[in-house]
UniProtKB/TrEMBL annotation:
One of the GO BP terms on file: modification-dependent protein catabolic process
GO molecular function, one term: ATP binding
Highest taxon listed in the record's lineage: Bacteria
Record-given protein name: Pup--protein ligase
Organism: Candidatus Niyogibacteria bacterium RIFCSPLOWO2_01_FULL_45_48
Entries under Pfam families matching the protein: Pup_ligase (PF03136)
Length: 497
């Protein structure tokens, strides 16, 4: 089992805070007059590099914050090799987003009325979706559009929302497993906006000359607040990908309409009632399908070779926790589920409020609780407060998350990106005219460009990168006098710093 690199991009909903006559109110962000800008003042305290128009910022943890279409913020985590690291950097992103946009109320995994009907989001039932994109490095598979790959991965992803669904309240007050499911209509395709798919086929060159590597970009999942849900979503997916690479993954019939199964299953908040019926008469619920994959993973882990002891240890923890989650869902064990899986935690909050009120909740009240659950602003983060109250459900400490605000993963190319950013930040404090640029696969200083194409490389990327760091080191020590040079931007983001 190879060590792979993975990461997430979380989309956030935002409301602008207004103070009128001492009273705080909130309103939606509207284009184009309300285009969001990253707070330079807040980020200067962290020593971060912000561009001149303040629409994107590369972070010292190796990640990126940017504004998509001027109206909603996104956080892209640095590349990680461990699922628990991705949980750390995902949770750190919640705080970084709030620091970047202090003028806003920020919501994670929201499903809301569209900000502007001209906005390039798909509107379904009068709603737009802010979800989570996942990226995984895949070894030795050049074509994702094959019956074998899709037949092994799509059923897993379609049923996975029983684990990673964050809950959703429709206009009738019905509780769904997932808000993202209603936006998925095709099995496989390359469109990320107008016709979202379970499996995204878009091919992007982010690995340079490494022809044995390919990025799998998934847009099917919800954004999660609970640490266990994030851990299981990423951990189980990378186990399934390893089984596919080694030819050991379960494979299901593609005559089944898996997007329809995903949408119908989401309407059943327990994942048991909705079943998929195969031509031979076999019937499986989402929990049945997840159990089949989980047991296949358990057998796979018993004989596969691991690249490191650390990856073996984590893979076995993922598998054990995956089994525990399925068992708890079968028995509706709320003691295990609450504080670990988002959709179950949201249902619990509804139950508590109904008991307190002594009456069924109105649709508006349910929607308000759901929205408050997703709020991540400091002091208002209900999911964080609940996780602290249920301390036994947490996987991380506050100190581990705080470290992820400013330090990168140590075993991916994010560490190289962060080294460059730190050196450039020091140089800019001494010489404000200094400029540089950074992207996912390259850094630029002056006329020099250094490629960091290999996502797995984190020690010595070569002379070009080391030469740039050496030059910055001499500038910072005073050994070299800085002469302003032109930095070119070829990375697709506004990266001038």
């Amino acid at each position: 089992m190879r060590d792979r690199v993975f990461g997430t991009e979380n989309e956030y909903g935002a409301l602008i805070i207004e103070n009128s006559s001492g009273k705080e109110t909130c309103r939606p962000v509207k284009k184009p007059t309300d285009t969001l800008h990253i707070s330079r003042e807040k980020f200067s305290r962290l020593g971060l590099i912000s561009n001149s128009v303040q629409s994107s910022v590369w972070l010292h943890n190796g990640g990126l914050i940017y504004v998509d279409c001027g109206t909603h913020p996104e956080y892209a985590s640095p590349e990680c090799r461990r699922a628990i690291d991705l949980v750390r950097f995902n949770k750190a992103g919640e705080e970084l987003i709030c620091r970047a946009f202090p003028q806003c109320k920020i919501f994670k995994d929201n499903c809301a009325p569209p900000i502007d009907l001209d906005y390039t989001e798909v509107v379904v039932d009068g709603l737009v979706s802010y979800g989570c994109h996942e990226s995984y490095l895949v070894f030795g598979i050049e074509d994702f559009n094959t019956e074998g790959f899709i037949g092994s991965l799509a059923p897993f992803l379609a049923s996975r929302q029983i684990i990673d669904g964050s809950g959703f309240v429709d206009d009738g007050g019905n509780v769904h497993l997932s808000q993202r499911a209603k936006f998925i209509y095709t099995l496989a395709g390359s469109n990320t906006l107008n016709s979202r798919s379970i499996i995204n086929l878009r091919k992007e060159d982010l690995t340079g000359t490494r022809t044995d590597l390919r990025r799998l970009h998934l847009i099917v999942g919800d954004a999660n607040l609970m640490e266990t849900a994030i851990f299981l979503k990423v951990g189980s997916t990378q186990l399934v990908l390893s089984m596919i690479e080694d030819g050991y993954a379960p494979r299901f019939d593609l005559c089944v309409n898996w997007p329809m199964f995903l949408r119908e299953m989401s309407r059943n908040a327990y994942g048991k009632a909705t079943v998929v019926v195969f031509p031979n008469g076999d019937r499986f619920s989402a929990l049945d399908i997840q159990w089949i994959y989980c047991q296949a993973a358990r057998k796979y882990l018993s004989f596969t070779d691991f690249e490191s002891e650390e990856s073996e240890h984590e893979a076995k923890i993922v598998c054990r926790m995956w089994e525990d989650a399925i068992d708890a869902l079968w028995s509706n064990d709320m003691n295990w589920l609450v504080g670990r899986l988002d959709h179950a935690t949201l249902r619990y909050l509804f139950m508590v409020e109904e008991k307190r009120a002594g009456a069924h909740l109105s649709v508006d009240r349910k929607k308000m609780i759901s929205q408050n659950y997703r709020k991540v602003n400091k002091g208002e983060n209900m999911s964080k407060l609940l996780a602290k109250k249920l301390g036994h459900t947490r996987l991380l400490t506050d100190a581990q998350i705080a470290d992820a605000l400013v330090n990168p993963p140590k075993n991916t190319r994010a560490a190289l990106r962060a080294r460059f950013l730190r050196a450039l930040s020091v140089a800019q404090k001494k010489h404000p005219s200094i400029s540089g640029a950074v992207g996912w696969s390259a850094v630029v200083f002056g006329k020099n460009t250094a490629n960091i194409n290999d996502p797995l490389c984190f020690i010595d990327p070569g002379h070009g990168f080391n030469g740039i760091l050496e030059e910055l080191g001499k500038i910072n020590s005073g050994e070299l006098t800085h002469k302003p040079q032109m930095t070119h931007n070829d990375f697709g983001y506004p990266l001038e710093v």
